[in-house]
Amino acid sequence: MARGRTSTGKGPGKGTRLHKTVAWLWAETTEPHKITQKNADSAYRIGMAPCDKGSCRINCKSNPNCLNALGEKLWLGEVQDNYWHTLQDPESERRKKNEFVGLKNLGATCYVNTFLQLWFHNTSLRSALYHWRNLDFDDQQSSSHGTPKEEKPMDESTAEVKENAVKPSNNLPPLMPSSCISDDNITNICAHLQLIFAQLQYTSRRYIDPTPLIHSLGLDTAQQQDAQEFSKLFMSLLESTLSAQPNVEVRDVIQKQFGGEYVYVTKCDNCGNKSMTLSQFFELDLNIQGHSSLSQCIKEFLKEEELNGDNQYFCMACNSKQNAKRYIEIQALPPVLNLQLLRFVFDRKTGYKKKLNSHVQFPDVLSLDGFLRNDAKQDTSDAVYDLTAVLMHQGTSAYSGHYVAHIRDTEANTWYKFNDEDIEKMNNKLKLSGEDESDPGEKPAKRPKCSKGSHTSRNAYMLVYTRRTNDAVPEAKIEIPEHLQEMVAKDNSTFEQWIDEMNKMKNDMINKGKDLQASVQSIYQMLPVKPKEDYEWVLTEWLRTWLNDRVEKKPPIDNSSLLCPHGKLHPEKVHNVKRISVKAADLFFDQFGGFPRLKSDSICLQCVKSICRQIRFKAKLAEDDKLIKANSKNKPDSRIGRSYWVGKTSLHSWKRLATIEEEAKNPVVKVPLSHNCTPVNRQSNGNTADTKNSRLSTESRKRKSMSTDEPTTSKQESNLAAGLENGTCAEVSFKGSPSQMDSPNQEDSSKQNDSDNDDDDDEEELIKFNEDLLCVHNNLVPSLSCRRLISESIWKRLIYYFNEAPTFPENHPVCQQCQVESEDERRNLEINKTVAVEERSILNSLYYNKHRPNLYDKDNPNISFHVLSNSFLEKWRSFLRRHHFVSRPKCIANQSLLCPHEKFMFNPELKGEDGSHEEYSYILREEWDVISSRYPYDHVITVTKETTDGDECRFSTSPEICENCHASRMLERARSIEHYRHATIFVRKITDEHDPEEIQRRFEEETADTDSPQDLDYNSSDTRKQSNTSDVSKRRSSRHRKQRGEVDLIVNSNQTLRDIKLELMKSFSVMPMDQHLSLKGIPLSDDAATLSTLGVRPGCLLMLKLDQPQGGSHPETLLAASTTPEKGFQGTGLLGH
Q: Which segments show compositional bias classed as Polar residues (predicted)?
């Protein structure tokens, strides 16, 4: 609960750097060996004036004497008592005077709480339940209670029940005792209601726990049930339980309070005879669909129904079927009229319940005399009712939401809103305007105009009207049984004891906080150092921790991170420390401990000298850099002096290299990385020579041997055109023109692919100045692209930092050996270029993949093609496209297309279903003759098609097909197709206007597995592609462009169709039952089947048709409801378990 620190817009970094500059200003004019104690004190900023108390909004990091804004503001100011504790106010749990009591929501039991509050406020029902007696346990109760006791008023607590009090332990606040009162003798629903009503009437708590009643009914606290069904079942159960009571006022209370009568009347149109069936009711169920007011709902309930046609009525008087009228006629109205507005209805289209969110208007005063028949038993003078309760369901779904009740206290004529534990008084007037707010993201419904004396709601599901002439039992005359008084009194006593313990703990915490505040104030006043007084250095962050009230256990003082290599305070760490008095430091180390203590003698002169040397070096470096940049743009004038060669990378990085040289000569004083380091055996590293030698090792140099500015490839033999007599490739003997064999050295040329980034690599690897001018023979490189001339004046400034750097005047000769090698490489590049241009011209169609032979072309009945490995084809195309950087293929390797028996592994009759299109391509005989004359090859493979007179095609291969190996390959391929992971499929939403067959045809054409004729920018690979269906699917999927209304899904073969529908529900917001998927025109209907068994393969397209559900139900709530069968109150105490 500490108060947040204030800050200004100005960051601390700028001020810190400014004060550091001032503290070291003397270093620019002072030699390191002439440093005095005064200079060292300035570096440590000892003489800086302390800031006035309270003058800084943020702490001055640059001033070790500033003790402001460390967190002291809290301790020095006036602190409110409630700051020193985090305990809840126990009085907030106490029932306010003349206020009602709430009910705890156990998860999804808010619908039960609303009815309990409603029935409690019916004083006649409450009084009758207080007079209920458990006939089975009367004898036991009389023996346990003994002689009758004099009733005590409920505001006088009985003796304290110490065994029920919850004692605090381990400085933790005592837990509030449970508001749930349990008794083993309470096993009946009426006994539970008695106890709950007694608590609601006399408890000292703000709310009570109805858990015993919920458990006795067997209700699931995590599942929200139908509130209207609960009301009906509970009333029926309660009436049945009370039926055995000898007291008639108790036995008939349900019927007398809520019971009414109506008759079903069927009147014959022919003879006027009436058939009447009497029925009793506790509530009227009113349909609200299509109605906007309560009167309309009642009229529909009582309206006449015509019975004619096939629905004629058999009249006993006429002894034949006759037209008739059927209607309901109310005979008697109860004192308390419950009107159920049927908001939750069953939707036949979706198969689920839905909520009707339409507004219904209802009056404060309801007159029912106009709805009574003239011959009704009810006196019309007793047909005027006042609104006394409105039960509401907040939410748009029938499967979720929240229940609240608005109930009028009839004695005080005041409305209250009962929302579980919270109760809100409504200032004598019912207001429902804020209760009908729409869910977030839902378009707000327009609220209809409401006439005076009426209300309108889209959430009200039950209205309770009480007869104006109703003789309810006054609150003061309600008598509570003595045993209930004792139980509630015990609970109140336990509750009061908890409040006392909480208050005691709160006072203890306040006193402890005030004592701590006084101690901190006393020590804080000791912190400032007086003039000429000894002092100590303490980590600033530790001081913040000490002043942080949220940190209960303060850690020991750890100054180890402040030490320099000499075991003293590092000058660069002054901004992390504060200077405090020795007296305060003694108190800190005695109370909290720590190590090491940095006293007045912790100033390190060695580190001050080292930093002074660095400052002077950087100042000279900046001055020389400014001069070099100003003169390096101008061409050296040979009339003024000599010119020198310098590497471009070296000139660009000379400041970094100079810093490395300086650090090698004078190691930089660095702060230890570990926070646990100690000054024991800490010495400066004297192996500077070894460090220099390791960093400047010439073994890591990158040599250049370029004679031109063009990118180079690896060396090729000059007799490439002449060729060799024989060649080898993967230990296979090759045939072909010996004049076209590649040089063995040619394989190294691929290493030059990244030559465009040579300059960046040089800058990263360059360690010694001007080493980028050296070739592998330690001579001047021939290439002019990596060096430039500078004037003698600039060279002298550079050589000051690099006195061992290689020196090359303007007329220094280049390396002759490198010049010869460069010329050879240039010549080899020209040969490669000539070969690439020539082959591209001769084999133009093969290179661009145009006009490729089609083995299955019906216009060519008898044809024969050669087979060429795709692995070679991709390398060859890559060489022709990028011959400066990619090596020429060494040979045509068709061995991968043959099995171990040296037979062909693919069957042309399958038209690529065995993955042949991934492994090889068909080429013309003329193309084979050209390419085989230029590259050695291992095997010649041909495929021939012959067409018989009956137009039957026969295919033959040379070598022949190996049936066993081909069958094994097909089996492996089938397995890999059926079992896949992380594959992509497409789902496209269609309507009746789309043609599925046309969509499928276009999709297959688009994703056909043929190489793109013009796409020559794909990445070539030197490794043979695997014959794997996952590769095929990925290739197809990546080349497919998604269409409108289409989504792609990453799936596994073991997922079910239902899993896919659940994923699609997120994209299209449509329930799985409204989704109809098909594959190639075949409907997919088995939701439990896996994708593998349904034939769904990677890269395929599913068609989706949607049925839009009606009623505006939320898919997520319908899904939650559909996961388990709806059981209602089956298995609960409401239905007898």
A: 675-697, 708-719, 1015-1031
| Distance linking the first and last C-alpha atoms of the chain | 52
Other beta carbons within 10 angstroms of residue 950's beta carbon come to 5
Q: Is the pLDDT of residue 1123 over 70?
A: no
pTM of the model: 0.55
| pLDDT, tens digit (0-9, with 9 covering 90-100), for 946-992 | 887 767 888 899 999 999 998 888 888 877 777 888 888 999 988 77
Average pLDDT, the chain: 78
Which is the catalytic residue, given 60, 110, 190, 315? 110
Separation CA 276–CA 273 (nearest Å): 10
Does the annotation mark 402 as catalytic? yes
For residue 390, the cross-strand partners are: 406, 463
Q: Is 315 a catalytic residue?
A: no
Cβ pair 566, 601 in contact under 8 A: no
Catalytic residue among 51, 56, 318, 402: 402
Instruction: Using alpha carbons only, give the angle 1030, 1034, 1036 rounded to the nearest 5 degrees.
Output: 115
- Three-state secondary structure string covering 442-494: CCCCCCCCCCCCEEEECCEEEEEEEECCCCCCCHHHCCCCHHHHHHHHHHHHH
Q: Is the pLDDT of residue 436 over 70?
A: no
Beta sheet of 1046-1051, edge-to-edge order: 1046-1051, 983-989, 1101-1106, 1075-1079, 1082-1084
Comparing 1038 with 563, which gets the higher pLDDT?
A: 563
List the one residue out of 887, 1082, 1072, 1039 whose CA is nearest residue 350: 1072
Residue 652: C-alpha distances to residues 599, 656, 796, 805, 897 (Å): 46, 9, 17, 15, 54
Backbone dihedral angles phi then psi of residue 267, each to the nearest 5 degrees = -115, 125
DSSP reduced 3-state for 647: strand
Burial of 838-859, coded b for 16+ CB within 10 Å and e otherwise, reads ebbeebeebbebeebbebeeee
